[in-house]
TrEMBL record:
<keyword id="KW-0560">Oxidoreductase</keyword>
<protein>
    <submittedName>
        <fullName>Putative malate dehydrogenase (Putative)</fullName>
    </submittedName>
</protein>
<dbReference type="InterPro" id="IPR036111">
    <property type="entry name" value="Mal/L-sulfo/L-lacto_DH-like_sf"/>
</dbReference>
<dbReference type="InterPro" id="IPR043144">
    <property type="entry name" value="Mal/L-sulf/L-lact_DH-like_ah"/>
</dbReference>
<dbReference type="InterPro" id="IPR043143">
    <property type="entry name" value="Mal/L-sulf/L-lact_DH-like_NADP"/>
</dbReference>
<dbReference type="GO" id="GO:0016491">
    <property type="term" value="F:oxidoreductase activity"/>
</dbReference>
<comment type="similarity">
    <text>Belongs to the LDH2/MDH2 oxidoreductase family.</text>
</comment>
<dbReference type="Pfam" id="PF02615">
    <property type="entry name" value="Ldh_2"/>
</dbReference>
<dbReference type="InterPro" id="IPR003767">
    <property type="entry name" value="Malate/L-lactate_DH-like"/>
</dbReference>
């Protein structure tokens, strides 16, 4: 069952939990804000649903509470950051802030970060740049999850791409895995006991896995040596565009692990505590191309033209960021959605850390 909870109370609970781990007040606030941003915008796969995974990594030492990101190579417009296995959200905020500062000073800022951790949604970091009046992009690699076109097992991560640009009435925000869906979406469907649409998951390269009760196959999604994997955006065949998602996943790998000389997807595993995902952060000042306000006004008018196109009967045309803006208004008014199993996970973590939940979950 899914219920709604007051977002400010849940944010405060997450803050208390991260305080209890030993994170500073400032860092705990950043983590809570990042996770609640995700739930408030209707992306429940990467919000507080992820607390259990982060808890596991903190306990086994893959996430190191006291680690701080460090610039190890730098130019006026670029930097390489070693995150030293700190929490992904904190590494991501730090790295995008470096990119934003460089873009404000030199027009462009590009940062690639290695030895990081799972950082949530790519769009959050892209939107940090948009909020600063800049164009933002972010991406991350991950452990193998996606099967390349015509292959039999996973080799590439879900490797999402986030892009954001200032616009009216709200920023344009595109955020998507290069696989058909992210791993977190599968986890949410399994918690809700919902069957999967065809070709979110494939077995032996071409056979769809759809039943949420097929525990044996779905459990193998986390095994890089298994024959079960997420499909690339476009499915399993070139005729439906599988090669496009596959190619986009490789491009993400270039901007994250290859340029940082960090770990590629196949080198990342939850068991190996000395390897972590890599990320990229880009900020671009539109002013290097012309009058910034005119560019934003032109882009905003372009998006409005799309929204006003004739729509299929019974459907609404949304551009990227519209649904998230609506979800945000709804969640602020009625609360964020949390399923019972995720709530049980959060409650168990809080109990172990001696954090009271009674005042936050009513």
């Amino acid at each position: 069952m899914v219920k709604r909870y007051n977002s400010e109370k849940i944010k405060q609970l997450v803050f208390k939990i991260y305080q209890a781990y030993g994170f500073s007040n400032e860092d705990s606030e950043k983590v809570a804000a990042t996770l609640l941003y995700t739930d408030l915008h209707g992306i429940e796969s990467h919000g507080v649903q992820r607390l259990a995974m982060y808890d596991h990594f903190i306990q086994n030492g893959k996430i190191r509470v006291q680690s701080k990101p460090e610039i190890i190579k730098e130019t006026d417009v670029s930097a390489v950051v070693d995150a030293h296995f700190g929490l992904g959200q904190l590494n991501g905020i730090y790295s995008m802030e470096v990119a934003i500062q460089k873009a404000k000073e030199h027009g462009v800022g590009i940062v690639t970060t290695k030895n990081s951790g799972h950082y949530g949604i790519a769009g959050f970091y892209a939107n940090l740049a948009a909020t600063a009046g800049l164009i933002g992009m972010s991406s991350t690699n991950s452990r193998p999850a996606m099967v390349p076109t015509h292959a039999m097992k996973a080799f590439i991560g879900t490797n999402p791409i986030g892009f954001a640009m200032p616009a009216k009435p709200h920023p344009f925000i595109f955020d998507a895995a290069t696989s058909t869906v992210p791993q977190g979406k599968i986890e949410v469907y399994r918690k809700l006991e919902k069957d999967l649409p065809a070709f979110w998951v494939a077995k032996n390269g071409t056979e769809p896995v759809t039943s949420h009760t097929d525990k044996k196959d779905l459990d193998l999604l986390r095994d890089p040596d298994a024959n079960v994997a997420l499909t690339p955006l476009g499915g399993v065949a070139e005729e439906t565009g599988s090669h496009k998602g596959f190619g986009l996943g490789i491009i993400v790998e270039i901007f994250t692990s290859i340029l940082s000389l960090g770990n590629i997807s196949t080198e990342i595993s939850p068991e190996n505590l000395e390897v972590g995902p890599c990320q990229s952060f880009v900020a671009i000042d539109p002013a290097i191309f012309g009058d910034k306000e005119q560019i934003i006004e032109r882009f905003s008018a372009y998006l409005q033209d799309i929204r006003h196109l004739p729509a299929v009967p019974g459907k609404t045309i949304y551009v990227h960021g519209d649904k998230e803006a609506l979800a945000y208004e709804n969640a602020k008014k009625y609360g964020i959605e949390i399923d019972d199993r995720t709530l049980e996970e959060i409650t168990a973590i809080a109990k172990r850390l001696h954090v009271s939940t009674s005042e936050y979950l009513n």
